[in-house]
Design brief:
The protein has 198 residues and is mainly β. It has one domain. Helices cover 10% and strands 40% of the residues. It is globular and about 55 Å long.
Length: 198
């Protein structure tokens, strides 16, 4: 099965990010209900192939390759429809089968964005815990920067909620265009065949 067919089997691409230096592509894929719960990690180029298939417990909102370590940060979460914004920060090993949920609390927090600032610092926008008497909770977020000297050795379930209480700012929820994810995935996983003139 080709990489593009393996992608189709995962679902509809809704979010994709590439790491050209390592020739890798991460794609979040949605089911027929629009929930992006499946993540595909692909090798790109002429030998494009699916390396890993990961099922997530919450909707995938953010993907960020670490600038130097073999890690992918995956921001998960959604509103539960009645009260809480649940979610998790997932760290996925690029070349092994490791995956670590980093937030200690079982409900976690909805991770809206995740971005590596450098080798040690990860910046995230997190939804508030809940919207109880808080109408602004749906369009504001806490800005949190986590700093670890070595993220590859950081243990799972070790980030307590007290470390996720950064300043709260207005933050409209980003809207990802699925066509961007589809185009990037198609370009990297199904490159055109170059034929030489005889």
């Amino acid at each position: 099965m080709t990489a593009i067919h393996e992608l189709a089997a995962l679902g509809e691409p809704v979010l994709a990010v590439a790491d050209p230096a390592r020739r890798l592509l991460a794609v979040a894929c949605a089911d027929k209900y629009g929930k992006a719960l499946r993540l595909g990690l692909f090798e790109t180029g002429e030998r494009a192939r699916l390396l890993r298939r990961i099922k997530c417990e919450h909707h995938i909102n953010a993907l960020a390759f670490h600038p130097s370590s073999p890690l992918l940060a995956v921001g998960l979460g959604e509103y539960d429809g009645g009260y809480f914004f649940e979610g998790q920060l997932l760290l996925v090993g690029l070349y092994n089968n490791t995956r670590r949920s980093m937030f200690a609390h079982s409900w976690g927090r909805q991770v809206i964005t995740a971005e590596w600032l450098d080798d040690t610092r990860l910046r995230m926008h997190l939804a508030p815990h809940d919207d109880d008497n808080d109408d602004d909770a749906h369009h504001e977020a806490h800005v949190v920067v986590l700093d670890r000297p070595d993220w590859t050795s950081a243990l799972g379930r070790t980030i307590p909620d007290k470390h996720l209480q950064g300043p709260r700012i207005p933050f409209p929820r980003p809207v990802h265009d699925p066509s961007d994810a589809r185009q990037l995935a198609t370009r990297l996983l199904d490159p055109p065949v170059h034929r030489h003139n005889r």
